[in-house]
Amino acid sequence: MQVINPLLIVIFIPMFEYIIYPVLAKFNCLTRPLQRITTGGLLAASSFFIAGFLQIRIENSLPQTPTAGFSQFGIINTLPCHLNLTGLRNITLESGEVHVLENLEADKTYRISFAADGCGNLTKAEDYNVTLASGKIQTMMVTSNSGNIVLKNLEDPLRTSETGTANIQFFFILHKNLKLQPTVNSTLIIKGKENIYFVPFDFEKYTSKGITIGSMTSMNILPGEYNLYLPVADSPLKEKVIQTDAKIGTFHVQNGGSYILTLAPINHTEKLGFHTYTIIRPNEISIFLQIPQYMVITAGEIMFSVTGLEFSYSQAPASMKSVLQAAWLLTVAFGNLIVVIVAKLQLFHRQSFEFLMFASLMVAVMLVFAIMAYFYKYVQQPQKENTVIDQSNTEVTSRENVFSNEAFGDDKM
Fold it and tell me: Would you state the pLDDT for residue 70?
């Protein structure tokens, strides 16, 4: 994306010079430098408005984090039937559904009751006391064992990767009577077409309920399709593990998504089921939607910066042309300084607000500039004539505008 701006500049400069400006001149539009500068500044402001509204759309697609004094509680139903929840709010989750309760009052202890609906003898409710911290998100995974509902408190999965890759967590829920019993040194293998990851497990023992829950710390992986392998026995050579272990399942992840992978018995049998739960939807907005705002700001940059440099040079007296151009470039430095200060102060908790603030400031400044430009009187620079060289005495003279310099003296003795 960073290549688009310089590439468009190379394309737009001759286009403006030979097509756009001549066409506008036929309608007597933007014939003066200050008119072009004003229009360029307003175009630049428009590009920030476009960026701001695009950022709002991006922010609305992201999970909302709780504000101070409030919290959120997420539930992931891994049961093969409906799950009824009472206590916080009365809701019913379908099998495989992920639900987040928002705007819950923080620093309070809630008593929650879970009950399965349609899972045969799995009807016994499991009560759970939860204290929600201010500004935090707590997530619970609901599974089962021997007719009881089992709850697993998860590391916060409701977050996206800062690098734009996919975020995954893996859990397996195993009963003691199952043949598949990984040990504490087991390694989870995630293998794609071009990438492979070896991830050790953390184990938690539920001895009273005869259940083992293995978990993997959340990690970021590149988007794509992966095969999942869980070794039955330890092996010091990872290459042998890949060749000898059976594949558990296949899953697909996309940029920006957050996923939970589970391996659990199906209906209390020895058969294991592999499921992928999408906790946060992947990125839905294409990066190419930035191209329109790049095109607008590039057009504004050409009308503003190129014309501004030309204006400062042509309207300055001969003795101050360099000074006036330096002053013009100094305004760019001050503009960059303002951006640095705003970024460091972190005045806004949303990037869209910052974009819209810059856009509003630019509109206000350009309106003031337009009023000043309306009353500006252009300096008519005299046209320079070609010089004539006298072959007889090799002295260079000018047809017009010959100035005398009193400081000049003849160097002849």
Answer: 87
